Structure formats: C-alpha cells, structure tokens
Amino acid sequence: MKTLNDIAPGGRVRIRRHRSDGAVRQRLLDLGLMPNVVVTVVRSAPLNDPIELKLDASNVSLRRQEARTIEISPVEADPAESGHG
Amino acid sequence: MAEQRSDQQKGQSQVLVALAGQQNAGKSTLFNVLTGARQHVANYPGVTVDKKYGLYTDDALRVQTVDLPGTYSLTSFSLEERVAREFLLGERPDVTVNVVDASNLRRSLHLTLQLLELELPLVLALNMMDVAAAQGIRVDKEQIARRVGLPVVATVGRKGEGREALRAAIRAEAERPAPSLNQAPSRQAEAARAAVDYGPLEPALEQLTTAIAAEPRLNDLPRRWLALQLLQGDTAAVQMLVGRLGDDDARPLREQAGQLIQAFEREQSIEVSDHVVARRDQAVERLLDGAVEGASDGRPSITDRIDRFVLNRWVAPFFLVATVFAIYQVSIVWGYEITNYTWPLLAKFRELVAGLLPTANFLVDPYVRSLGLWLVDSANTLLNYVPIFLILFASIAIIEDSGYMARIAFILDKILHRFGLHGQSTLPLILGGVFAGGCAVPGVMATKGIPDTRARMATIFTVPFMNCLAKVPLYTLLLGIFFVEHKSLMMFYISTMTIIFALLVAKLLTKTVLRGQETSPFVMELPHYHLPTVSGVLRRSFERTWQYIKKVGTVVLAVAVVVFALLHLPGLSAERKAAYEAQAQEAVERFEAGLEGNAYRDIALGANLVPLVNYFTDYKRAKLNASGAEASARVAERFEARNPDFYPLVKPPKGDRDARAAWRELRKLSQARQVLRSEMRNERITTSILGTIGRAMEPVTQFAGFDWKINVALLSSFAARESSVATLGVLFQQDDDQNATLEERMGAEARAGGATALLAVSMILFFALYPPCLATTIMVKVQTNSYKWMVFSIVFPTILGLAVASAVFTIGTAVGATGIEAMSAVYWGAAALLLIVGLLSDRSANRQMRERLAET
Q1: Residue B855: is its pLDDT beyond 90?
Q2: Set of chain A residues whose Cβ sits within 8 Å of the Cβ of B75
C-alpha cells in the first residue's frame, strides 16, 4: 500500500486512511489531513525530512515517520472531483 | 462569581469573555486590539500556552477578557486543548469569541462546531479578512451568520479593524439572557444540536444523552457534548465522569458507552472518532457552500513564491545561516556598541548611589556602603545587557511574526530530531546564544512552544550550554591571558563547541533520564508570511526585556546579598583587625610626619584626613573614567567645586612646592591604604564561608587544576555568570596601582602559581558545561514544574563539567599537551563523536520504523 512518504514533490494524491492512532491521528485530522482530502506534496526539507504538504488553504509539514502512516490513493482524473474532496 | 453579582447590584456589570481559536488565526493580535493589553503575539504555532487576561470597559460594562491557548480542536490529546476546554467548561464565560482565519474557513469551522457543542454563547470573529481578500476569497458574512445562527463580525486584527463592531457584538451577546445549562431548552442547546448531524451515530448519542440527563451530578456539563466525548473514548471526559460520580456510579454509563461504541463500529465499520470528524467536515462544507467563493484558484500565492526561494534545497541553508548571522550582528555586535554609550549612564548611577551611602572609612567601610555598592554593581552588570536584549528580542519577534521561524524548524528538524530535540528547539537555542551572546533565561522560557514533551525537556537542559552573554567575559579574559596568538581559533572553538556539546548531551539525556517522557509528532502548520507590524514587534521586545529584568533582576539581587554574606562572614578576628589598625596608624603617622611644616598641614590632618583620602581616590577614579581632554576638564571643575581646599592637594598648582610635597605624601598614604585594604579583603575571603567551601572542594577540583580561588569564582558565578569575572577581579586584587588590567594581574599571579594554558582550557570547558545560573534554574523550575528537575539541572552539568575538565587537565598534564593542543583534541573528538552518534541514530530510527510498520 502506497503511503504519503512514497510521493515525490509535485505529486497530488488523495488521503485514504490513517494507520496512526491517538494524538498523532487527531493532530493530522485537525490540520485538515482527513480521509478523502486531496493534498499536494510541495517539497521535502533540505535534508529530505520533514516534508511539506499543500492543502486547500494551508501548508503543513510533517516528518516522514508520520507520512509513512498515511495511506493514499491516486487522484481521479475528473478535476471537478479534486477541488477539496 | 459572587463578586460579579455584587458589581451588578451597584449598577456596574462585569462579564467574562474568552477568546478561542486555532493557531495562526491572529487570536492574540485580536486580543491586543480588543483590550489594548500588553501580551505575546506571534504566528509561530503554539506560542500562547498561558492564559492571558485583559480588561476593557465598554460603556458601563467591565469586560474581563481571557486569551485561551490556540488549539486546532478541543480533544484532550494536547495540554493546550485540555487547558482551553477545562476553562470553557469550568468558567462558562458569558461570551466566547471564536476567532477564525477567514482565508481558511474550512479548517477553522471545525473548532467552531466543537465550541457550539459546548453550548456556550458564541460570537464568530472572521479575522484576517484582508488576507482572504488578497487571495481572491469572497466571504458572505451574512449568509454564514444565518447558517450557524451566530453573530458574525469581520475583523482585521493586524490593522485594528473591526474592534468597535466586535465589542458591540460582545455587549449584545452579554446582555441577552443566557439560561443556565441544562435547565430549560435553550438557544445554545438548540444550536448545538443543529450544528452537526451525526447520522447513524445519532441514536447512540440520543440514548447516552438521556442516560446522562438522569444523573443530576452531571448537570454542570453539556449533556450531548459529554455523550459525544464518551462515545469517542475521550480520556479526560471519562475522568470527569469518574470524578463527579465515583468509580461505582460511573460504571453503568461507561459500560453503556462501550456497548454503543462496539455496536456502532460493528455496523458501520468505521471508528466513532473518524465518523465524527467526517460528519463535521460535511457540516462545514454545507455551511460554506455558496457563502465562500474563489478559494484555491491554483495560482501560487506570495507565500508559495517566497518559499520556493527560501526553502529551496540549496538556498535554504545559506538563507538560514545569513538570518542567524544577521541577528547576531545586529543584536550582539551592534548592541554591544550601544552599551558603550549606556555604560557611562550606569557608572553615573553608581557614583550617585556611592554619594548617598555613608562615606568610606580609612580601613573598614560600613557594611551598608559595601553591600549597597555590591548590589549596584550586580544590577549594573545585568542592566548593561538591556540594549542587546531589546534588539535581540525585536529581531526574534520579527522572525516569529513573519512566519520564518516555522520554516527554520522545518529546515533543521532532521538534525535536531536525530539528537532528541525538535525543529522548534531552534528558537530557544538561538535565544540561549548558539554562537555567542544570548541568555538562557528567555531561552528556557521559549521552550514552552515545543509540543513534544521529551524534546522540550531535552531542550530545557541543553539551552544553558549555549554561550550566554555572561560567559563571554570569562572567555575573553582567559583568551587574553593564555591564548594571545591563537585567539581567533579558540574563539571559533568556543563559539561552535556549544552546539556540539548540546546535541551530544541532548542525545544522552533522551536515551537515559528522559526515556520515559511523552513524545508527540512533528505535524506543524507553515503559516502564511506576514509583514510584522512595528507596534507588535516593539511591544514584544519591551515585554520580554522587562520579563528578563524582573525575573532575573530580583533573583540576582537576592543571591547577590547571599554571596555578599558568604564572602564577608565570619570576618576577621579581633586581633587580626587590630594588627591591620596598627599598620594603618603607622601609615597615618608617616603621613603626619611628612607634612611637618607644610602649609597645607591643617587642611590635611585631623578630622579632614579620611575625607581627603576618599576625595583623592574619587578624583583618581573619575580621571580614569573620563575620556578626552574635555571630560577631564569637567572632572577637574567638578572636584574643584566640591572641595576647593582639597583640590590643590590632588592637583598641585604649578610652582606650589608645599602642595606638591603634600600630594606626594597623600599618594603614598593612599597606596598604603589600598595595600592594607586588599590584604584585609584577601584574608577575609580566604577565611570566609565561601573561601572555606572553595578550599574544601580543592581535593576534588585539583584534577581539573582548579585552586580554591577559581572554585570561589565558579561558585559565585552560580548567582550570575557575570560575577565570575568580578570575583576573580576581587581575588586577584592588585597591590598598588589601579591601572593594571585584570588580565595582567591574573596573568602574572596565575603564571607565578604555575597556571598554564591547559588550566585555562580546563576552566573554559568547565564553564561551557557548568550548571545554569540561578535565574535559569528558577526558570527550569517554572517550565518543568518540578523541583526534582531543577535540582537535576544543577547537579548533572556540575558532574559532567567537572568530569570533562578533570579528564582534559589530568590527561593533558600527563602527556604534556599545550592548551591549544588539548582544546583541538577535545573539539575534534567531540565533533567526531557527534558524527558517529548522528549516523547511528539514523540507522536505528529506520530499523525501528520498519519494525513498527511490519507489525501493522
């Protein structure tokens, strides 16, 4: 199963499921990383970790450690679908 | 509450207003606009952890305003959220203002829905309307107001726009009668129910709400909210239940909740909390549908464009180094130059106090005088740093407010995380003085923004290893004596070894004593860039500097008194005192004999003698402090005016032979007096309590090469680092003229005593690892909320510092290493160790991650 950690900068994906729980999961959800939301991987930090994501109206950074717990799926072809999921 | 009611009876009513909102929504800025109070503002996530109060009056209404910590939601996972939630539940403010980022409503309104569920009277402040407009987002305020059923006000906190409208909305809401919770069907309860439709969860929610309603002891909590928390397995809500009902009575409710959760998750095959978030998101979507237009048109924003440059893989490190260097240059280097202008003011203040205190005796000064001057000197050393701190704090405020601080955390997290720290440890380390010049007190204070407890603790204990401003004088002193030809290399070592030591120690602590501490993920918003406002930056700069003066000043002054006592007690024995008196008497008699037949004899002798000698000393010091011919002339004028009779004796007029002879005698007497005084002081310190402790420590410290004098200096530096140099100054007191610098004196005496550059290295290393000063340990107590950790912050570095210094000195002496050789060996050894630890921890982290993922 592909995770957010596998996506190169520039990639747009849809969040499927969180494998984390407790505080990590809540924090990810709170910052808008909810299932079905489409995110863009903007860049990784100069030392490759953490990574920066672009959401609807905000940018969020997280470590690859956490990115590995977020399962993703490709964004459907229909552009109208991918607005803000 | 009782007070509030009595106020109302007097016709003056007071209301309690809470500001709640997500981080980076501009809540703190709006709080300032609303109340005009001084307080901390930044868009660095997590800066406001304390509850902040402010008061304003609006007609007859006294509005007590509380700025709650910024929270993304109201779960019980983080400390901030627990604090905010408990305040809202416990105090039930008359009005809660929910500050939301108008340019990011989709995320912000999640919190709004949760606040609605608490059944609180709410006002919605759509903040940062200008940012939204700049991004082409149009927000239909009226439509949102209708849909959420709340008063909605548009504000731009940074420009102070919308203040009156917000105050009016608060007043209107406060004046509406709010029925007590759970008494009758209220507007708030209805709004809470209407806020989110939880669909398939509703039957379970209904059932549990009814069960809760049957229990009068839960009457002070919003029922639907409590039911929802219980269904999500919220630990704090369960605690609330148990706290109010006791274990036995809580059990049926907990069991019922458990069964409902199981049934729901079986039927829907989704966790309750995920379902709740998803339903809330749908509710937000419906709220915004048609009310907000133009969001995310795909054009790169200004922030995107700046980040493309600033966070570029190759540019980022240079930009970061340039930024830190700019802070260093502006605050430390230029700030230090400003102290050249402010120091004379402090010196003048000392003179002023010296003039007010009882005058000096010939040999032993009154305690009031010596203690008074001791306190002024201690205060002055601290106040001397004020210009530096003002600039330092202003530059840091600019970096925080602009949004770059979060980027620094983003860039450096990888390295810092590897050693057990956190990307957000950067600010505390910079404040502590990464390269040269900072202060551990604001550094430790700033750690409260770090969300990861273990990394926060590790940061608290490593910030004192930074080069605080007060360590610098000792380094400068030692380099000036022992490393004249290697000064720049040594300076490089000293200014960069701090971070090496800090990372190694952080790793060590994380692996040992801090092992069991809670950690949390690095999931952080990178806020939009903002231009910092002048008033915001100045306010914070003054506020933090004031905090420094207040917190540090009081403690340092208190400790200065203790150190003074330890240095003065028990004092000289009566017979030693008599012996000194006798010698003084001889010197005076010599002076009298020398003035036999002199025209100035009557002016100089008798009751005038002590004032004259003091006058002479004051004049000499004033001359020494005066720079330039003009200042020198002013000193002459001043002293001539102060006592025209004495003046010819300190500055004999040309051709006046008697005056010249008297001046020579006076100089001899003054010198004799100084020798006696310094001998007495030396003897007093040697026999003092602190001297005794210092000597008692010699058996241990000898391995590091420290004799009792150095021990005393290091002990007194615990009060405040600055005093190490001051104490050394006293200990290595010169014998005759006041003109030899401390470097020369200490150098001569130290070399005579067999001290080497190796000893200097040992001292530098010990000083670099030495426990934080007292003010910092107090701050450690505040930030860790534990005396145990405070004691740890003193004991651990002492042992570490002594061990390192002893190893270097003993081994260095055995192999006959020079100072610079020893220092190079230590530095590169530590750097190599850092590299090895860094590489190893990366591999072990990867392994752990693979194992963890294999499990799932």
Answers
A1: no
A2: 26, 30
Q: Cβ contact (<8 Å) for B278 and A35?
A: yes
Question: Are B525 and A52 within 8 A, CB to CB?
Answer: no
In chain B, whose CA is at the least distance from the CA of A33?
Answer: B107
- The CATH number of domain B2-185 is 1.10.1040.10: no
Classify domain B196-293 by CATH number: 1.10.287.1770
Select the residue of B303, B526, B849 nearest A61 (Cβ to Cβ). Answer: B526
| Architecture of the domain whose range is A4-77 | Roll (2.30)
Report, as an integer, the average pLDDT of B43-53. 49
Give the burial string for A7-16 (b: 16+ CB within 10 Å, else e).
Answer: beeeeebbbe
Cβ-nearest to A60 among B73, B295, B525: B525
List, in sequence order, every residue forming a beta bridge with B292; answer none if it has no partner.
B139
A58 contact B CB<8A = yes
Q: What is the mean pLDDT of chain B?
A: 83
Which of A52-61, B158-167, B283-292, B839-848 bottoms out in mean pLDDT, i.e. has the lowest? B839-848
- Provide the sign of the torsion angle of the four alpha carbons B626, B628, B633, B634, taken in this order: negative
Four-point Cα dihedral B44, B45, B47, B50, nearest 10 = 160
What letter does residue B55 receive in the DSSP assignment? E
Residues B481-530 have pLDDT tens digits of 788 788 888 888 988 888 899 999 999 999 988 888 877 778 888 988 98
The C-alpha of A45 sits at a distance from chain B's nearest C-alpha, in angstroms, of 5
Is B138 an 8 Å CB contact of chain A? no
For chains A and B, what is the number of CB pairs under 8 angstroms? 123
Contact B413 A56 (CB under 8 A): no
Give the domain ranges of chain B. 2-185, 196-293, 574-685
Secondary structure class of B292 (helix, strand, coil): strand
pLDDT of B730 strictly over 60: no
pTM for the complete prediction? Answer: 0.81
Amino acid at A14: R
Amino acid at B607: A
Mean pLDDT of B438-452: 80
Q: Do B2-185 and B196-293 have matching folds?
A: no
B370-393 pLDDT per residue, tens: 888 888 877 887 787 788 888 888
| Mean pLDDT score across all residues of chain A | 85
Classify each residue of B496-529 as buried b or exposed e, where b means 16 or more C-beta atoms within 10 Å of its C-beta.
ebbbbbbbbbbbbbbeeebeeeebbbbbbbbbbb
Set of chain B residues whose Cβ sits within 8 Å of the Cβ of A1: none
